[in-house]
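Hi Y.,

Following your request, here is the sequence exactly as I used it, all 310 residues.
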Amino acid sequence: MRSIFFGTPQFSVPILRALAGATDLRLVVTQPARPSGRGRGRRPDPPAVARAAGELGITVIQPERVAGKAFAARIREVGPDLLVTAAYGKLLGRGLLAAPRLECLNVHASLLPAFRGAAPIARAILHGATETGVSIMRMAAELDAGPVFFREVVAIRTDETTGELTARLAEIGAAALVRLVEGLPGIEPQEQDHSRATWAPALRKEEGLMDWVRDAATLHAHVRGMHPWPGAFTVMGGEPLKIHRTAVVERESAFGAAGTALEHSAAGLDVACGKGVLRLLELQRPGRKRLGPAAFFAGRRIEAGRVLGI
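Below is the corresponding structure, written out as tokens. Let me know if you'd prefer a different format.
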């Protein structure tokens, strides 16, 4: 079958490669390159999908807009049997959805109708979910609302970050797409229960701030869900302190107020939460490298009783 792929970040790359192996992939559509890094000298950084498609020798286009009759006509000229999307980042209009001869498919990293939207993996972790998965749906004009061909349930590991879970789900989605493509046509999708839909909006940078009044388990999920972007952080001495890795610990001694540093050692920095204690295992000051507790405390001692978040 002749196919076209729409995708942008690293999550999309295994799915792109799988589609290229299972079909005659004629065209890849991805977002334009955006500036990366810091300062005025930032250079445009091509999306992961653009780099991967270039390695495969597949034509890549990076339009600012995919709306309108002219772009839909351009896609129809390719004569696709399938149009597949995975984390492209923009909604496709009805003209594009009608372009392929067989199906317009989307690989989405949640168990639909749960966590529709741009950040399903991070939001699942942030909500304390113990499982998530991959759904492949027939695309509809409404966001992530089309009938579902395939679901696979995946357990979320207790210390797994958004970045780690993203890599796992991308491979699962790629394998599932191949199986689905091999069965088309002839497989009928099932309608979603729209009354049970939940939402996963894109993360905002300010959401990374730690709220020490919350319980330790919730804050542990917060750190994992915010990694690698935007990153969890607190404030210490008026400057941000990034928190990359944590653990929930049991302590028998009396706790301080939420956000109070209780004890620090080579094992980590124990901080009182609204309920329980969170051990900070990997920290980073502005402009510095991320460090484990021993290396971090060698350069900057945090005394017991100090309150973080101010």
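Residues 205-299 form a domain with the Methionyl-tRNA Fmet Formyltransferase; Chain A, domain 2 fold (CATH 3.10.25.10).

Thanks again,
Q.
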